[in-house]
Amino acid sequence: MSSTSRNSSSPTALYGGQAGRRVTVRDLAAAKDRGEKWPMVTAYDAMTAKVFDEAGIPVMLVGDSAAMVVYGYDSTLPVSVDDLIPLTAAVVRGSSRALVVADLPFGSYQASPQDALASAARFMKEAGAHAVKLEGGRRVLPQIDLLVSAGIPVMGHLGLTPQSVNAFGGYRVQGRGQSGDELMADAKALEHAGAFAVVLECVPADLAARVTAALSIPTIGIGAGPSTDAQVLVWQDLMGLTPHPAKFVKKYFDLAGEMDHAVRAFADEVVSGVFPAPEHSYS
User: Fold this and answer.
1) Is the pTM of this model over 0.85?
2) Structural domain harbouring 275
3) What positions does the entry give for 3-methyl-2-oxobutanoate binding (predicted)?
């Protein structure tokens, strides 16, 4: 492959491609056209973002899941724009290729399209985000219309939308039975409004497959089966830091166990006087 083709506007591989420029929403659309699947992970700090970026992850989400995995809350609801902007800025600084998407947190966009624009503009201007994500279907179309018209790429989110957990009565699968038709209608409406992708969370696999086939924009699954165009996981879940992960999580590494081993070894060596050794000391 020539250097010219490697640096073209549509890379031949979205995952693991060359780091000459940032991935764009057009690259995601091109991957959909090619039938190419791709991964997305969450990130909340520069060092972790650098690892994921160098691994070739094309899209990183600074999720409102930071409320739980960074700030220690029991839901996504308490986190604010002010909480997420520094995390988003860190991920942008720590990466050079990935498209960085910032979650609009609960209360920052629901009241009006103007609120949505003000919140999204802060993420773009202050943090350098490349896109934003918001939850909901047809009820947030005015917000999406205004953001898209202002030049802000918008990722939608349907199914189990964690910011509505109290309305749902808990973390439950969404879209079963007749409600699947409503979710399909919402997905088509988001696409029509200009969303560049849609997250489908905790929906039946057959419904996710039908939505994916019906849309020309990428679908990103989390607990939505294997047929979506992309898959996303919270990085602490896939690395084994979460004590009781959801059914849809696959643990790829026991990071909690490795960290426990390392910190105990450090503590034991401090107590015994083995650390610091001469090679760790200055003369």
Assistant:
1) yes
2) 255-282
3) 64-65, 103, 133
